[in-house]
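Final report, results section. Input specification for complex C-07:
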Amino acid sequence: MTEVVILEKKVLNENQRLAAELRERFARAGTLVVNLISSPGSGKTRLLERTLESLPAGVRAAVLTGDIQTDADATRLARFGFPVRQITTGGTCHLDAKMIDWHLEGWDLDALDILFIENVGNLVCPSSYDLGEEAKIVLLSVTEGEEKPLKYPSIFFKSKLILLTKIDLLPYVPFDYALACANARSVNAEADILGVSCQTDTGLREWMEWLGAKLPATELQPR
Amino acid sequence: MTEVVILEKKVLNENQRLAAELRERFARAGTLVVNLISSPGSGKTRLLERTLESLPAGVRAAVLTGDIQTDADATRLARFGFPVRQITTGGTCHLDAKMIDWHLEGWDLDALDILFIENVGNLVCPSSYDLGEEAKIVLLSVTEGEEKPLKYPSIFFKSKLILLTKIDLLPYVPFDYALACANARSVNAEADILGVSCQTDTGLREWMEWLGAKLPATELQPR
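Structure output:
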C-alpha cells in the first residue's frame, strides 16, 4: 500500500511545517508549551487539575484539551480560572498542529507563560504529530504494567519527561517500579523520570519544579 | 484534506471486503472469533492467560496477539500449550484484516473451536477495523475512569461485551461503577456488561459462561 505510505508522509510533512511555525510563535511569545500524552485514564486531566491549582499567583496559564467526544475535561479544568478550550476531534485519534493553530485563535500568546496541551488518550498515534511543543511528556499509570515503554517505544523515546502516575496504587498492583524505569531508560536514556500520585500528592513538588526549571522567569512552587 | 478522507475510505472498504471473507471462512470452519480491544494495560493479556488455563479439556483454542513492538505477550500466552502467534505491527496502531489473514497461514481453522484476537492496546483506532470476528469485546479497567464510554463511544458502541476489569482495585480508586455501567448503556443498550478481576477471579465464571454461550458445541466452565 505505497499510496497510503506516501500520503501519510505528506500529511506528516505538512504537520511538521505547521508545527515549526507554531514553535517559532511560542518562542517569540516566550510561552512554554508542553504536550501531555498517555493511554486513556492514566491521569492527564487529574494532573492538570492539581497543577493549575498549584500554580503560583501571577503565572499565566492556559489549556487546550483534546478528546474524541465530550467536553468533560474542559469543564473540569475551567474551574481553576485559566482559559481552557476543548478540542473535540470527532473520531480522530490524535491532535495535530492545525487543530492547535485553530484553537489558539484569539488568544494572546504574549500574555501566556505556559500552555498545557492534553492530547487524546492514546499511547500510539499522538507521538507522530509534532504540535510545536517544547516538550512531550508521557504519563504511564502503574496499573498499566512495567513493559509498556518497550511495547510503545515511540512516545517514550520522544518524551523529555516520563511520569509514572497513580503510585499510591503500588501496594495493590503487580508493578515492578525499578523494572519500569529500566525499560523506560532502555528506550530513552535522556528523559527525566518522576513518580507521582494526585491522591497523596507524592511527587507533585518535583513535577512543579521540573516545569519551573523550563520557565526561567518564574519560580513554580506548589502553594 | 479530502485526499486523506478518500484514501481512508478506500483502505476501510478494502479491509471490510477482506473481513467479510474471513468471517465466511470462520463460519464455515465453525470457529468462534473474538476481538479483544482496550487501552494499553487494561488487562487483555492477563484475561487471556486466565481464560486459556480455564478452558475445559478438549476445547481447541488459538491466539493472535498484536503489539507495536515486542513478542512479550505471545511468550506469556504460549505457556498454556495452545497455538499463539504474535503480530508485531511495527508502528501501526491497530490490527487489520490483512494481518489476520497473513497470520492464519498454515493453521487449520476446522481444528479450532475458538480464536482469540488480542488487538493493539488502543481504545480508538482498532474500533474501525473489522477483523471478521463474531464479537468485539472492549475491556475498561476501573482505574481508567467511568466517563470513558462517553469519550470513546465508537468501540463501546460496536462491542457485544463490555468487561470492567481490575475490579479488585475498586476500594482504592475513585470509580463510580454504577455510573460507568450507565455511561456504557447510554452508548450501547444491547451489550452485556461484566465486572471481572483476574487477581481475585471475581466474574471469571460469568465470562467463561458468556464465551460458552457463543460456543454451543462445548460447555465452558472454569476448571
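The first strand of chain B starts at residue 32 and ends at 38. DSSP finds eight helices and seven strands in chain B. This concludes the modelling results for the funded period.
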